[in-house]
Structure formats: C-alpha cells, structure tokens
Amino acid sequence: MSDTSPNTNTHHQRHQAAAAAPVATADTASAGSIDAASRKAFGSTALYLQSELEATGSDLQLLEKLNDASIAKYEGLSRQAQDMLVHAYKVKQTYNEMETQVAEVDSLVESINSLEQVAIELDRYSLQLEAKFQKLLK
Questions:
Q1: What is the signed CA dihedral for 112, 116, 119, 124, rounded to 10 degrees?
Q2: Which of 62, 64, 60, 63 is nearest to 52 (CA)?
C-alpha cells in the first residue's frame, strides 16, 4: 500500500477521520459519563459528610444537656453537703455546751451512788445497833 496517488491519500485520510470520529464520540460520551459519575459521587460524599456533621452536632447538644443536668445535680448535692456541715457544726457546738453539764450530771450520779452506799451501810449499822439495844432491854 505504498500507493501515493492523491486519491489513495485522500481515501486514507478519510478512513482515519472516520475511525477517529467514533473514538472521539466515545471519548466524549465516556468523559460525560465519568463527569456525571464524579458529580454523583461528590454529591453523595457531601451528603454523607453533612449527615455526619449534623449527627456530631446532635451528639454535642446532647452532651451539653447532660453536662447541664450533671451541673445542676452536683450543685444540689453541694448545697446539701454544705447544709449538713452547718448542721454538724451546730450539733458539735450544742454538744460542747452540754459537755460541762453532762460532766456535772456524771459527778452527781457518782455522789448519789456513794451516798446510797453510805445509806445502805448506815441502815445495816442501825439494824445492828437496834439488835444490840433489844438485847440490852431484855
């Protein structure tokens, strides 16, 4: 095919152009298909990322509400603990004030017990004296 006639050369050029045309059309169609698929993929990715961001935002809002509830709960517990400390301080003050009185009561109880022992001994001794007196009278 080394025919260099003008007709052959033109025919060969037409054949190349005809063969190239479907390739160009296929390339254009393929490029359009790739472009459409890319747009769809990026759109889907963007939608996914948007959903993830919204979910993360919702999680953060929930955590904020939980933190607020925890703060309120611990503030209440703190107030209760402070109230208990004030009450415990008052009880300790009252105990300290009563401690001297309790010591006096304990001292009185010991004295009463001692007096009771003396009274029991005096009663025995008086019974013995009475018995001796009765013997002397007889």
A1: -170
A2: 60
For 1-138, strand residue ranges (E) read none
Judged on CB neighbours under 10 Å (0-12, 13-18, 19+), 7 is: exposed
Helix%, strand%, coil% for the chain, nearest 5: 95, 0, 5
What's the CA gap between 75 and 67, in Å, rounded? Answer: 12
Structure tokens at 63: 């955590």
- Six token digits for residue 32: 């359009």
Digit-coded pLDDT (tens) for 2-47: 444 444 445 455 445 444 444 445 566 687 889 899 999 999 999 9
How far is the C-alpha of 26 from the C-alpha of 30, rounded, in Å? Answer: 6
**0.85 surpassed by pTM:** no
pLDDT in tens, 58-80: 999 999 999 999 999 999 999 99
